[in-house]
Amino acid sequence: MPSRLPSATSSSTSRAHGVDRKARREVWLADPRISRDHTFVYPDNRGFSGKCLPKDVSAILRSSAEHGFAPPLLKAVMDINEAHRADDPTYAPYRRKGKCHGRS
Asked: Of the residues 10, 25, 47, 73, which has the fewest C-beta atoms closer than 10 A?
C-alpha cells in the first residue's frame, strides 16, 4: 500500500484553506519524482500501512530514543497515522510482517 499520510494531511489542509484538492494534486504531480498512486486519498482509509514504512519509522524512533534523541516530526507522523489507523486490525507498525524489498 502506498504511503498516503502526506496526501491525507494535504487534503485536510487544502480543505481548511478553501483550495481545490484536485488542482493542488495536479500541481504536486508536475514533479516527476512523485507517483500518482502516492497522492490518492481514501476518506475511509487514511494514513499509511504496509509491510515496511510503519515498521521502519517505528525502528527509527526506537533507535533514536536509545541514542537520546526524539525526532519530533517522525513522532508526530506516527501519532497522526496511528490515530488514522486506530480501527484497522491489520495495522501493526512495531511488528515485522514479511519481506521488505527482498530482505527477510
From this structure: 73
